[in-house]
Amino acid sequence: MRARIPWRAMPGPTARALPWGPLTACLVAGLLIMMVPAAATAGLGVDNIVNLARIVMLAGALGVAFLLDDPAASTTAVLPVPRLARIAVRGLLAVPVLAGWWALTLAAAHLAVAAEVRPAVPALTLTVEAAALVCVAFALAGIRRGGAAGTVGGIVAAPLTLVLVLLLQFLPDGWSLFVGAGDPRWREAHVIWSVLAGSALLASGLLAHEPTSRRATTRPAPQPVGAGVRR
Amino acid sequence: MTEPTVVATHLTLNYRKTPALADVSFAVGRGIVGLLGPNGAGKSTLLRIIATATSSYGGDLRMLGRDPRNAQDRLEIRRRLGYLPQEPGFHPRFTAFEFIDYVAILKEMTDRVRRHAEVRRVLTAVGLADQQGKRIKALSGGMRQRVALAASLLGDPEILILDEPTVGLDPEQRLRFRELIADLGENRTVVLSTHQTEDVAMLCQSVVVLHQGQIHFEGSSPQLAALADGRVWSDSVKDPRAVAAWRSADGSYRNLGMPPDGAPTLPPTIEDGYLMLVQPTAGAAVAA
Hints:
The structure holds two protein chains of two kinds.
Chain A: H1 11-17, H2 20-40, H3 46-64, H4 73-76, H5 83-112, H6 123-141, H7 154-169, H8 186-208, E1 228-229
Helix pairs in contact in A: 2-3, 2-5, 3-5, 3-6, 3-7, 6-7, 6-8
Chain B: E1 6-15, E2 18-28, E3 31-36, H1 43-50, E4 58-63, H2 71-79, E5 81-84, H3 96-106, H4 112-125, H5 141-153, E6 159-163, H6 171-184, E7 189-193, H7 197-203, E8 206-211, E9 214-219, H8 221-226, E10 232-235, E11 244-247, E12 253-256, H9 270-278, H10 283-287
Parallel strand pairs in B: 3-7, 3-8, 5-6, 6-7
Antiparallel strand pairs in B: 1-2, 1-4, 8-9, 10-12, 11-12
């Protein structure tokens, strides 16, 4: 027996239920971080752009950390459509928005660097980093709290994301994931970023599943409702 | 009693090391069961377990003959269950209709025409048909409570779990609510947690009193009231021996506890019986 998931009916109301406010604020802030230098100068170096892009992707990840905030969670907690489907729909609805935002970020980055170094901007690998951070924030947002439908919410997931990024920032040189564009570990670091993105997605899926007890239980005999005081 | 629809055996649940439920066993069938108890007694915890909102409990639970800890069984239970939580949440920008429609979608109602008819049905049942186009943020607390109640009625569930549903309702709304619940209880199991003893007295065929995570009483409303038989007396002064005493409308004191010799006793209410169970010093009086 499987849940009948109304895939066609869910996106409309789910899109309206999404907490667009925090997400939009973070995406706009991130975009401004990239657009202001782009408007002011067209002579930034590739390393500067890489660093700016990382700040932008952190802003985006912080917005994504709020994506599973749901004020109606207590009312909808025990409905048959599984938590995994609800979380998947929320995530999928944000994908086009995030993709558009990241495309704008890369376009602004492109304008901010000198024409002769534009081909050296590692757009694809930066996209892998951004995707990984967003997936990590999404996974952290899905940490379960308070039973069937509750999550920790952005108020916890966003600081966790920030702390994680700071930890990654301060990893020793040989381990750092935030490597410079010309660093010999660039390729290796981005393999790890890819693995991180995949792992975070997997973690999201696992966290979205409701726990089931495999513990053997005995079938009880019905207890009669007998009147009386129990001490 | 009809065939039990909810059978709990030795349910236990601890919050860290504090027991929220300790060895709770009961069985209920069709009809309305009132769950009484002071704040922190474990009522909401018990209802959350029955509503399949949590599976981290010890002991055994069968609902409609199924085990909620098994994913397949849980799905089937949820299809046949309605749950009004103690603090229902909403999407405030949705209208009442849109919100109930969203809940209906999550209740696997895929056919739009039939779903909308069902949404209108439950909104009418709770008296919100005229308010269905209003945004939830514009509704009063009582109306929001009715929106949540309407959500729990979707799909005509066989088991209805209501956690303090009359909070925030005015007297007229409470009266309407009683009518509605009384009708619903005729052909399904309704588990009703409340602090309103008069709601229990008027609605419930059976009562469970939960205190400090344990069941202290199980029986009918008259049987609960009977616990205070001969323990309620009227006096012109507040009797210091009473476990509870309050000045009534006629100016006399209604004392509860072990009456002095010769004191004229009053017929007890369900509230008196309940107080005899949960007042710290009343246990001895009940035992006596």
